[in-house]
Amino acid sequence: MKSSRGTWGIRLLIRALTLALGVLVFWLLGFLLGDIASIEGPDYSEIEAKYVDPALYEQQSALQQQITDLEREITGAREQQEIVRSSSQNLQNTINQMLQLQRISVEKNVAQNETDRATLATSQASFLEYQAKFQELNQQIARLVSQQQKLEQEKSTLDRTIEENRKPAEREFQELNQAHRIRLAAYQLALLVPVLLVAAYFLARRRDSLYYPLFLAVGGGTLVRVVIVIHDYFPERYFKYIITIALIVVVARLLIFVIRLVAHPKREAIVKQYREAYERFLCPVCEYPIRTGPRKWLYWTRRTVHKVLLQPGSADSIEPYVCPACGSALFEPCDACKKMRHSMLPHCEHCGAAVDPVKDRVTGSSA
After folding, report:
1. For 7-154, where are the E strands, in sequence order?
2. pTM for the full model?
3. Would you list the domain boundaries of the chain?
4. What is the side-by-side order of every strand in the sheet holding 321-322?
5. CATH of 20-230, one of 1.10.150, 1.10.287, 3.90.1530, 3.40.50
6. Which residues share a beta bridge with 340?
7. What is the pLDDT of residues 226-260, one digit of tens each?
8. Taking a C-beta distance cutoff of 8 angstroms, is the pair 175, 215 a contact?
């Protein structure tokens, strides 16, 4: 006897727990793969030390420090120059005002006192002094800028030399790092592939097992992790081929499964097909309408069977009936109680006597 599948609530709970278990398996495998990925790879600094002289880095650092110091001195000199320019402009304004007053005094024939003349002379002397200071700062800034440019040229030459020496180091590091990534991928796949194969074996060989959802959860979580590892560690041009080939294999396997299911259906599927056909008053073999009793002169299809209205007070009279389209026996007397029963259903509705309609039909067809 076929075991009960449980209520829809139980089935829904089983599916939900299967999904939750698959997620937990996915997380667990992620933790394990994370530990594998934490294995240290090649050290670029060690590789670079074989190709680039450390003295070059020291010289580069010293040049950069000198350039920074010069930039700071240039900034300070320009700030001083700005102060001198501001003071010089203020003195120039003062001298212009004093000269204007002196011109007015001359026009009015008023003698200029000694204090004003002394102040004017002092202002002119200070103005000339600021002008000299401004020129001196200009020369200092020009000298510092020249030194900075020279140091920057030296540093640029040194940078090119270091960059040229780095190229073989970078090539070696990329080769070693790629080998390290392949090694990590091999370690991770060595963990995942056996788990996936075991889960696939049980999924293929234990489809009717009570613990099929367990195998499905483990296999699903592992498969997702395998896809992620392949995507992370293999180049994209290889990844697309791997995924495409894998999908081709999966689809081909499903197609073969469906073809076999149609060519050699399971007993449960055949019985379900017969039962659903009887419910719609259609022949289970060719789906020709079962026209017997009050439905003898009616027309319906699989979709319209429930819309057909019978005459009030009419009842289905059960009598031996054979499909006129394919010749399949649809109603016949029961061997146990002699009452009419469905020929293609496993039990008599009156006495419950059991037969195997699938086996009998295959035997009859072979004969």
Report:
1. none
2. 0.55
3. 20-230, 234-264, 274-306+317-366
4. 321-322, 329-333, 340-342
5. 1.10.287
6. 333
7. 989 988 887 777 777 877 887 888 788 888 878 88
8. no
